[in-house]
Amino acid sequence: MARAAAGGHALGASLRRILCISAHPDDNEFTIAGSVARWAREGRDVGFCLVTTGGAGVNEHTPSNEGLIPIREKETRAAAKILGVKDVILLGYADGTLEPTLAMRRDLTRAIRRFRPDIVVCGDPTVRYYGNEYLNHPDHRAVASAALDAVFPSSETNAIFPELLAEGLPAHKVKQVFISGSLQPDVFVDISRTLRLKCRALRAHRSQVGKGEWVDQLLTAWAVRDGKKAGLRHAEAFKRMVLG
Ligand SMILES: [Zn+2]
């Protein structure tokens, strides 16, 4: 609780660049956007790397989903702008059928070596379900798994994916990993001042949340729940890895 008394986890000044890797266009807004907005406000460079197009986000556009994809890209960019995120990397994989393949790991390694983040933020690939109501989406698990493997060992090892060297992308060592959705979080970021932005950013995903009347209530309830664990009013929880 000593950390909570100090007002939640504060990033060191040397941690300038943060890359958030997620499966779907709205994943960051549901989970980590309060921290993202805070880090951006602190003057850090935050980027999003989204693996899928989000083409399976609603059923109205099936079977082709093509009509939905440009809408989701527009919503993604609007949400990123609200949060102060300048770089959005879209990998364009099909929504709903991801596997943590070597091809995906290579694409994520490329994104990491290009962006050269001090911190990578991703989900927890080990969580199969939460409570009694939510089966963790297979895309979330696949991306989280490939992202961690891209951080270590792929990104920091020149001999892995030598084709990336030929693209002018040498090894890059990520210093820390923030894992969201962990069942054993050990770091709590105070989002009291950015919760409102998080809600606004999620409401930008209109194709997913409609008018979003429930958004503020849901995200506030989650922030209060995670805040309680650390003596904060509103927080987001992470498991933090400091890579040696
Ligand atoms: Zn998702």
- Which shape, going by the Cα principal axes? globular
Distance between the termini: 25 Å
* Number of separate strands: 9
Which segments are poorly predicted (pLDDT under 50) over 5 or more consecutive residues? 1-5
Share of β-strand residues:
15-25%
Order of adjacent strands in the largest pleated sheet: 3-2-1-4-7-9-8
Give the helix level as a range of percent: 40-55%
Largest sheet: 7 strands, mixed
Helix/strand/pairing category:
alpha/beta
Describe the structure.
It is a single chain. This protein is an alpha/beta fold and 244 residues long. The chain is built from ten helices and nine strands. The strands form two sheets. The chain has a seven-stranded mixed beta sheet, sandwiched between helices. Helix 5 (102-115) crosses helix 6 (138-155). Residues 23-24, 27, 137, 140 line the site of zinc ion.
Topology (elements, then pairings):
Blueprint: H1 2-5, E1 17-22, H2 27-31, H3 33-41, E2 45-52, H4 68-83, E3 87-93, H5 102-115, E4 119-122, E5 129-130, E6 134-135, H6 138-155, H7 162-166, E7 176-180, E8 187-190, H8 195-203, H9 206-209, H10 215-228, E9 235-242
Parallel strand pairs: 1-2, 1-4, 2-3, 4-7
Antiparallel strand pairs: 5-6, 7-9, 8-9
Helix pairs in contact: 4-8, 5-6, 8-10
The chain binds zinc ion (ZN).
Zinc ion is lined by residues 23-24, 27, 137, 140.
